[in-house]
Amino acid sequence: MSSHPKSARAAAGAPGVHPVDEILPPGRMLVASLQHVASMYAGAVSVPLVVAVAAKMSPGDTAVLMGGSLLMAGIATLLQTLGIGNFIGSRLPFVNGVSFAGVGVMLTIISTQGGIEAGMPVVFGAIIVSSLFGFLVSSYFSRLVRFFPPVVTGSVITLIGVSLIPVAYDWIVDDSATGAPEPRSIGLAGATILAMLLLQRFTRGFLKQISMLIAMVFGTLLAIPMGLADFSKLDGADPVGIPSPLHFGAPEFNIPAIISMCVVMLVILTESTADMIALGKIVEKDVDEKTIARGLRADALGSALSPLFNAFHASAFAQNIGLVVISKVRSRFVVALSGAILVLIGLSPAAAALISVVPMPVLAAVSLFLFGSIAVSGIQTLLQADLHRGDNALIVVVTLGAGLAPALSDGFYGAFPDWAQIVLGSGISTGCILAVALNLVFNHLGTKESSAGAEPEPVVTH
């Protein structure tokens, strides 16, 4: 990579055009775009799968969630890369997709509301309001970033990953008719993990980037002779179709759910801000407060529109930043084409249904990698914090200790009112609120040494 913008433009062969704004030849652009889609596809469908499986949705409803998520990931990516006027879109090579940050909150809302029929409208109503909140505060959020230093963001990201890991193990149990994990289910999950490890170790380039998808295909094929594959879910799936708007009903607005989702939105804005700053350095383009604000508005607008097509919060996919580094292709138009491809895939119910036939042990194995990667991202962020300071270490301890309670002790808040369970039951909302509050107490209020933990540089989360 060039170390100077001028040399970068010269290397790109387009004098006066920054590599971010370069339009590549059609063939090279298509291949680079497909790499981005392959790199984020599994992550993009994982969130709707986690929600659908945990909520015991039908295959049809699951396909609706996945199709909507892919469609809105494409639209949000187009908003981010191409932008609207000088108000929306960072115009950086950002791929957007469904954020994991809201999974715990969404599952808690569905549970406290009594199931899918009553819970999904409340989930979507909370997403709409929290996204509008994110849109309104985007211009001011860059000034609030100092209240989300690595000790806060690292704790919350680690909490998100660790609290989701038990979900993957539950999938293996749910696949068994006996209610306990069977050896064949554990064996299938183990074989899928082994396939991913071998692919990561012995492949390079494009094959390594799509190792997760290859492992999913391998695990599904292996499940056929084991009697763990069910292809009946493909019956009746149309090759082309527009996702039905508001498939689960009109959004409903519940105050506790909205409060929890606003906390999730703050986490998403924090992650996106860190990713934009990191990507700006990678592509050698200045990322100022105005650029960050435009990018956050794109995230928030995409998130606000998502519930209309049965999708969740949209945010930047950090793994695609790694692909920009590896491929050295910095054109935002490459990523825009990726967005267009995601829109086309989202308009194919058959494509969404195809993912739903993947056996639960295979999904569990792949998800362990995804959830574990989120936790590692949080740990990497915590390495940027000064944990030798007892106060910062205490923030991490309390955040993880309180935030993991619902994940490790089923029904921990079961005796609380429903409104309290929505706020406390996900753990992520509780952990984020505690982390921010404790950081204010120890690093800001009544101390002149707040700079030790208040304004370190954000880091990219992979």
From TrEMBL:
Keywords: Cell membrane, Membrane, Transmembrane, Transmembrane helix, Transport. It is a multi-pass membrane protein. The chain crosses the membrane at residues 38-57, 63-82, 94-112, 118-137, 144-165, 185-203, 210-228, 248-269, 333-356, 362-383, 395-416, 422-442. Pfam families: Xan_ur_permease (PF00860). It is found in: Cell membrane. The keyword Zinc does not apply. PANTHER family: PURINE PERMEASE C1399.01C-RELATED, URIC ACID TRANSPORTER UACT. Belongs to the nucleobase:cation symporter-2 (NCS2) (TC 2.A.40) family. This is Nucleobase:cation symporter-2 family protein. It comes from Streptomyces atriruber.
